[in-house]
Amino acid sequence: MKIYHPKNLSQYLKMKPMRLFWIFLAIAVIVLVLILIYTPTVIQIITSVLLVGAAVALFLSSLKTAQVEFNLQIEKNLLDAVVTNLQDAVVAYDKNFRILVFNKTAEKFFKLKADELVGQLFTIQSSSKNPNHSLLRQIIFPSLAPNIQKLSPAGKYPQVVDLKFDNPYLEVRTITMPIIKGGDGQKDANGFIKVISDHTRESSLLKSKNEFVTVASHQMRTPLSAVNWALQEIQSPNLPAEDKNEILLTGQKAARKLSSIVNDFLNLAKIEEGRFGYNFEEADLVDFIAIVVDEGQPIAQQNGINLFYERPQEGISATFDKQKIGIVLSNLIDNAIKYNVKNGQVVVSLRKKTDESMVEIAISDTGVGIKPEDVQKLFTKFFRSDTTVKMDTTGSGIGLYIARNIVRQHGGTIWAESTLGRGTTFTFTLPTDPSLIPSREVGNFGKE
Fold first, then answer.
1. pTM across the whole model
2. 332 within domain boundaries
3. Rounded distance, CA 169 to CA 281, Å?
4. Domain membership flag for residue 1
């Protein structure tokens, strides 16, 4: 590494390694004065030459030491800056497992303070006393980890190891290198440095991508087959008119289903990429919900479901994106109709909360209900409960995930309450005060 060296010697003359020279120079001057006063000329000349020679030699030696120390200090500062600001966690320890380095990223990752660890012994026994040290202990001693995959041959450095943990789920890769090595192998190392990379998000994204492709191909196969069948059947020259109309209706229904699936996946992609833009405007929620409910009546009638709207007497104004909240309402109403029982009912209600800054919108049904253990998973991407899969195998499992994201971006919350075999109620809140909308979305207020 190339390092700048000051051309002005004055910077080196002030450094600590030059102190010995300055002390020697002061003593030499005093001795020289005494010699000039009390000794013969010959001794004066010899002593003066020796003192000057010694002073020059000491000066050059001290200057060299100062330059080396200057280089080392710069390298140390550079190394400290790199390690401190590195995006990966860095932990270094000596051969006795005394912690030497614990950077800022390590503090965040392990949720531990460097001041409490640096300089302390971190053995299996000592760390077992503190439950907060569990993750760090399993990374320093990877044989304790629940899932380990070694990617390097034993005894060869760097040692690369992949580790997986539960509660919470983590996937990390550790790279271990000896700090000082006098020969080959761990026995010659005075310590080790570990670089810990958190791969949890990358692994989740890859898993999500694979799930996306699998679910998309599975969900689109059925409606595509139906459209293809309809197109083939209507080409038959001897097909009666009434049969042709029925086939066309089947193909149209499959095409609408396919369009709905494609829109869901496009919305999902926009949400994950942060491109799901919002256009907020102030409007009457009472009238808006009435329009969405009316649009759902034909589907409810086709399925033998009674769809009701408990409309408030007075208007309720709120600031929201009509298109996005329309997606949420339509999805919840469609689900309530789809997973209901014959002659069941769906009730949509709207009320102001007591604090007057929020409104609650609820969609209740008399359907099959959801298992208690599945309720908390409903808003997870691609999740579908057993009871819904039995009634409809073509769902994508992303409608509620999209709904949750839309509600959150409006500053609200969404949740579900269900009794198996008796029905489910989905409720979400919206703020009536625009200041409660997240600031990153408020910037789109009033834009078209």
1. 0.52
2. yes
3. 40
4. no
